């Protein structure tokens, strides 16, 4: 499974087909290329906690990625099966020391897991936005309508926008990281993002 890269589980958004009414799990194809570039082998996770648990046993992944799309149910979203699956994945990662990164919605799920209050914000749907990440400026994108300017332990803030909105968090003493931009959508992709993913998942073996 890991011969061509480190296998990581990747969560998927829920979409509804307007013609058939089918609820479908879906993943932006940009993720496959981005993760491959970072030396990672994505394994898509269906939005069913019991299947996610079976995939963990079968693949023995190096980590977990929670992707964007679908607002969490507490923020008005309509995909409770995804909330349930990602909550299970966060709990598993914390219990077993498995690296987990949350992107956009994924970071919001981590924040909600630890009781952080998230509220509507304005001005954060931008193709390019300068933030501070680990004390350095970074030009990223932004596609979220909810956010926060505060945090709660054990979440530490490691990224902010110029107007003070939290853009990245990390859990104290655990390999859990959240970022509020979409590295897979940037073209060309930032070498810093590729290195971030490679280092984050590759350093915890």
Short description:
With 205 residues, the protein is α/β, with parallel strands linked by helices. It is built from 5 helices and 13 strands.
The whole-number mean of residue pLDDT values reads 95
Q: Which strands sit side by side, in order, in the main sheet?
A: 4-1-5-6-13-12-11-8-9
Q: Any low-confidence stretches, pLDDT <50, length ≥5?
A: none
**Regarding CATH, which class?**
Alpha Beta
Count up the domains: 1
- The CATH architecture assignment turns out to be 3-Layer(aba) Sandwich
Structural class: alpha/beta
Q: Per DSSP, what share of the residues sits in E-state strands of 2 or more residues?
A: 25-35%
Description:
- The chain is of the alpha/beta class and 205 residues long.
- Helix content is 28%, strand content 31%.
- It has five helices and 13 strands.
- It has helices spanning 30-37, 49-59, 80-96, 105-113, 191-202; strands at 6-10, 13-16, 23-26, 40-44, 63-66, 100-103, 119-120, 125-133, 136-143, 146-147, 155-161, 166-171, 176-179.
- Strands 4-1-5-6-13-12-11-8-9 form a nine-stranded mixed beta sheet. A two-stranded antiparallel ribbon has the order 2-3.
- Helix 2 (49-59) packs parallel to helix 3.
- It is globular.
- The mean pLDDT is 95.
Summarize the helices and strands and which ones pair or pack.
Blueprint: E1 6-10, E2 13-16, E3 23-26, H1 30-37, E4 40-44, H2 49-59, E5 63-66, H3 80-96, E6 100-103, H4 105-113, E7 119-120, E8 125-133, E9 136-143, E10 146-147, E11 155-161, E12 166-171, E13 176-179, H5 191-202
Parallel strand pairs: 1-4, 1-5, 5-6, 6-13
Antiparallel strand pairs: 2-3, 7-10, 8-9, 8-11, 11-12, 12-13
Helix pairs in contact: 2-3, 3-4
């Amino acid at each position: 499974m890991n011969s061509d890269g480190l296998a990581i589980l990747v969560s998927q958004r829920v979409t509804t087909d307007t013609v058939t009414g089918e609820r479908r799990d879906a993943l932006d194809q940009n993720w496959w290329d981005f993760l491959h570039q970072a030396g990672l082998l994505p394994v898509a996770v269906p939005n069913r906690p019991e299947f996610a648990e079976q995939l963990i046993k079968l693949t023995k992944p190096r980590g977990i990625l929670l992707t964007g799309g679908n607002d969490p149910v507490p923020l008005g979203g309509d995909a409770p099966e995804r909330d349930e699956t990602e909550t299970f994945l966060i709990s598993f990662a914390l219990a077993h020391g498995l690296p987990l990164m949350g992107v956009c919605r994924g970071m919001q799920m981590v924040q909600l897991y630890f009781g952080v209050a998230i509220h509507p914000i304005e001005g954060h749907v931008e193709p390019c936005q300068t933030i501070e990440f680990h004390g350095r400026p970074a030009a990223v994108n932004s596609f979220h309508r909810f956010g926060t300017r505060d945090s709660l332990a054990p979440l530490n803030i490691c990224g902010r926008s110029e107007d003070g909105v939290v853009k990245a968090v990390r859990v104290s003493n655990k390999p859990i990281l959240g970022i509020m931009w979409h590295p897979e959508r940037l073209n060309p992709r930032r070498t810093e993002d590729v290195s971030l993913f490679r280092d984050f998942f590759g350093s915890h073996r």
